[in-house]
């Protein structure tokens, strides 16, 4: 499994995914390969944040399947802690990306289409409605209907 990271997240999308997911040091079974990251980037249309979330979730699952171990010298490897760390990173990235999307996306409101009203009003062969907005407006008249002049 090839694992490359040169301390520059802007160098490539793979480097950015490693930076966001915290997978910057090759830990063998605990790390994602460059090929896994490339496949994930392809699947999420080169969105590095979504790819980092999916890589974190995959690494959390991978670490959860490994056992914690220690040797006689006191060196211990806690796969369960690494699994929890990757799961927490995925959760944080998902929360941050949803917050960012909430403030950068404008709601799309369709334009009001009134062309059907104009078409209806101009149709000569159609039965016209009995009532229309403004049909009782009479701006030239000075009085009301109740006046007995």
Summarize the structure.
With 149 residues, the chain is mainly alpha-helical. The protein contains five helices and two strands; from the N terminus they run H-H-H-E-E-H-H.
Walkthrough of the structure:
The chain has 149 residues and is mostly helical. It has a domain at 9-104. It has helices at residues 13-21, 34-43, 48-64, 79-104, 115-122; strands at 69-70, 76-77. The chain has a two-stranded antiparallel ribbon with strand order 1-2. Strand 1 (69-70) and strand 2 (76-77) form a beta hairpin. Helix 2 crosses helix 3. The protein is rod-shaped. The termini are far apart. The model has no long low-confidence stretch (mean pLDDT 77).
Query: What's the SSE pattern?
Result: HHHEEHH
Measured by DSSP, the beta-strand proportion falls in under 5%
Rounded radius of gyration (Å)? 32 Å
Distance between the termini: 100 Å
Shape: rod-shaped
Estimate percent helicity: 40-55%
Name the average pLDDT. 77
Q: Which descriptors apply to this entry?
A:
mainly alpha; 2 strands; 149 residues
Give the SSE map.
Blueprint: H1 13-21, H2 34-43, H3 48-64, E1 69-70, E2 76-77, H4 79-104, H5 115-122
Antiparallel strand pairs: 1-2
